[in-house]
Amino acid sequence: MTTEQPPVEHLDVIVVGAGISGIGAGRYLATELPGKTSAILEARATSGGTWDLFRYPGIRSDSDLHTFGYAFKPWRDEQSIADAPRILAYLRETITENGLDDRIRYSHRVLSAAWSTAEARWLVDVERTDTGERLQLSAGWLFCAGGYYRYDEGFTPAFPGRDRFRGPVVHPQHWPEDLEYAGRRVLVIGSGATAVTLVPAMAGTAGSVTMLQRTPSYVVPVPRSDALAARLCALFGEERGYALARRKNIAVGTATWRFCRRYPRAARRLIRWVTARQLPAGYPVDEHFNPPYDPWDQRLCAVPDGDLFRAIREGRAEVVTDRVATFTEDGVLLESGRELAADVVVTATGLDVQAIGGIALTVDGEPVHLPDTVVYKGMMLSGVPNLVLAIGYTNSSWTLKTGLVCEHFCRLLAHLDAHGYDVARPEPADPDMPTRPLLDLAAGYVRRAADRLPRQGDRAPWLTSTSYPADVRLLRAGSVTDPELHLSRAASPAAVPAGAAR
């Protein structure tokens, strides 16, 4: 006696991740292609991605919400550089307003996906993180919207003597709800966006806060609220005013980045001048806020209303530039011989970069090795059919790029349907095309992961653009067809296996 296996549920599109990119993808699919079946699989029990995961004090965006928000949903809050609870509320409003609640399947972690050319589908292995149950789904397309870092752990260097320290050592990615730091000496190790957020946020409660950095970062004060955006909304109405504010901020951001890259010495002098004006007279600016690299070799750190500088001026925070020699029982001993006393140590030392959520891919039984692939139009992988990955900008708001990817993806699906195609597979015309790392940043977290990530080519459509205007031309206005994107029909008469649920 044989037991009949239940049919595998089939969906036109599986979106992986219910963060800002996945919610956006779900909305575009629901509105642009309402006839398509889709589901958003989220490994965690809640939506929001980064904005629900991180709970450390002061967690906020480092991009303005007029560009970090969706093009289709105005940002109504007075904060332009917004804290996480406001962003999370915005994302969950988007879910409800677009009827996505029933499409999100929580506690569903995608483990692997196997592509079959004969059937033109992905067979996806899923784990229920709440029960441990394993199940399978099939899909015509995978849209990987899980961001670019591991959610289960951050990056912490191996500090000598760490086990000797008698107090708690905390990574911001796993902030304990019961961490007590009021009146205590806090040492924050790091100099990036997380560190410059934590220091002023904790300085109001802690006894003292010290930011220990190995290398300075460019730290730039920005207004927390956008007065001009508010004025535009008052004059032209919410939707049109938001669109104008968005265009204004895109233009300002693009011009700033181009200026920094074209005139790095002038940009360095300008940033130093702005920084010096924010700090007390005689402060050692060059020691603590003058990096050895050019602006935008790494991301600039934005501090709303100059809160980090204000904490330093008021004596509530200190910056130390040195290297850790070893932890001690009561703090950290530096290579200079100075010892920093601490009751709590926060290792704001970065992320562990990971592409496509760590999903193991195979194509017709062959494993996909990501470093052997090249990214097509910043959204697909060479040799991998019917898969899209949402990778946002590193030099601008993440969502500007992922929004364009969603638009292009929906247009591509419509084109395939109109012409009877099932499969889209990017392949470089020149298999010997020179390649280089996908992400053009010198940041440590990028360099550590370079050999685990896909690569980019030296020409379109394999060159990953960092220019929003260029991507508007390519992804919004440009054709969805390309000589190096091969479209075909399923080899098998039935793309969906017999008995599969639609």
Automatic annotation (TrEMBL):
Q: Which organism is it from?
A: Geodermatophilus pulveris
- Gene3D superfamilies attached here? FAD/NAD(P)-binding domain
Q: Does the keyword Transferase apply?
A: no
The GO molecular function terms of this record are: flavin adenine dinucleotide binding; N,N-dimethylaniline monooxygenase activity; NADP binding
Please state which protein family the record places this protein in.
Belongs to the FAD-binding monooxygenase family.
> What are its cofactors?
FAD
Q: Which UniProt keywords apply?
A: FAD, Flavoprotein, Monooxygenase, NADP, Oxidoreductase
Q: Could you identify this protein by its name?
A: Predicted flavoprotein CzcO associated with the cation diffusion facilitator CzcD
Q: Which InterPro entries match?
A: FAD-binding_MO (IPR051820), FAD/NAD-bd_sf (IPR036188), Flavin_mOase-like (IPR020946)
Q: What is the lineage of its organism?
A: Bacteria, Bacillati, Actinomycetota, Actinomycetes, Geodermatophilales
